[in-house]
Specification:
The chain is α+β, with helices and mostly antiparallel strands and 377 residues long. Helices cover 52% and strands 16% of the residues. It is built from eleven helices and ten strands. The strands form three sheets. A four-stranded mixed beta sheet has the order 1-4-5-8, covered by helices on one side. A hairpin with a 2-residue loop joins strand 9 and strand 10.
């Protein structure tokens, strides 16, 4: 298996790394996260101008790259800067919904909108009682003439305050936890009957509680197959997990660099604490955890196009490793920095919060351990 990147992929990484270094320094990111808007539309436009929003789409789709590897590269570099703009929600999740389940008309309209930066998506799948189970859906979509009427409540919809459209899972048949009967819908955020309650999350992002009250959509709003949307949702979530793992790897690298730098500068008993063997061992453990996370991220990215079972196993294995590595690296980084590690003025605490949130997104470590075990049985 070849783990070398192409020259185009190396160039993409350099472009994103330079952009993050120039436009996403820590102080700027703090100000953006605390601003009323919570993001920078002009930065999103710059992503589009540089081709970053189209880098993971093929030329046939109107893009400039090929797929998951480009998304992995961009996500890792965005992780280093704790980028707030909705790349995961729009490009990885939204783009893959259309790539894997969209009609030709949907692809033509919405992929072009993603690449151009005009259209932004948020994935409304989680509900107050659903935990991490994608098939646990109580939001309903009842047949209404040629279309459907949606009613329900979606919780913690990341990126919804910035979105122009929502991708919504709703039940069109069966009971609340049945695997069959789930359908995916595309809903304009400004559609009549859609209301939101926006709020900041602990890691500096923005989310919404989204309510649907007799929201009418046409038959052309369905993405994929009616009553059989769960397999499509699982594909897209595994793609999102791969991108999240890459983002986490970017966070790990910054946490390790910041910890080593601090340990060389901080003195105790007349010498840098980096000279203390016990701390050297801990920092080696942090480095090894980051390397293991990187390897697992590469693995799941390369397996996204394989059969369902292989893809799911890879996604769960990677998510488990990310969870374990994230806990070790982020906690040790904070502890080695001492009490100042969790202060708002130091970047370590912000990366700690983002890594913690990544661990719980789309299933935490325990949930994926269970899924991996069940798939392996």
């Amino acid at each position: 298996m070849d783990f070398n990147f192409t020259s185009e992929q190396d160039q993409l990484r350099d472009t994103v790394a330079k952009l993050v270094a120039q436009k996403y320094d820590f102080d700027t990111r703090r100000k953006v996260a605390k601003s009323e808007a919570g993001w920078r539309p002009e930065m999103w436009s710059q992503f589009a101008e540089l081709g970053l929003l189209g880098a993971s789409f093929t030329e046939a789709e109107g893009g400039f790259g090929s797929g998951p590897i480009e998304a992995m590269i961009i996500s890792e570099e965005f992780g280093k800067g704790l980028v707030i703009e909705p790349y995961l929600q729009t490009v990885v999740i939204g783009g893959n919904f259309f790539r894997h389940g969209g009609t030709d008309a949907q692809k033509e309209e919405h992929i072009a909108g993603i690449i151009g930066g005009e259209t932004r998506f948020a994935f409304a799948y989680s509900e107050p009682k659903s935990r991490f189970d994608l098939h646990d859906v109580s939001t309903t979509a009842k047949k209404d003439g040629a279309g459907f009427t949606l009613n329900g409540h979606k919780a913690v919809v990341i990126g919804a305050p910035f979105a122009t459209h929502l991708i919504v899972t709703a039940r069109t048949a069966g009971g609340q936890r049945d695997a069959n009967g789930v359908t995916v819908f595309l809903v304009a955020k400004n559609a009549k009957g859609v209301s939101t309650r926006d709020y900041p999350t602990v890691d500096g992002l923005r989310a919404s509680e989204v309510y649907f009250e007799n929201v009418s959509v046409g038959a052309d709003a369905v993405i994929g197959k009616v009553d059989a949307g769960l397999p499509l949702v699982e594909i897209i979530v595994d793609n999102a997990i791969a991108a999240l793992c890459a983002e986490a790897v970017g966070c790990f690298k910054i946490l390790n660099e910041a910890t080593i730098t601090y340990a060389k500068q901080r003195k105790q008993f007349g010498q840098p604490i980096a000279n203390f063997q016990v701390l050297q061992h801990r920092m080696v453990d942090m480095f090894m955890a980051a390397e293991q996370a990187t390897s697992m991220t590469y693995m799941v990215t390369l397996k996204l196009d394989e059969a369902d079972k292989a893809r799911k196993l890879a996604a769960s294995a990677a998510k488990v490793q990310i969870g374990k590595s994230g806990k070790l690296i982020s906690q040790d980084a904070v502890q080695i920095h001492g009490g100042m590690g969790m202060t708002d003025e130091l970047n370590v605490g912000h990366y700690f919060k983002r890594v913690t949130m990544i661990e719980s997104q789309f299933g935490n470590t325990d949930w994926h351990l269970r899924r991996y075990t069940e798939l392996s049985a």
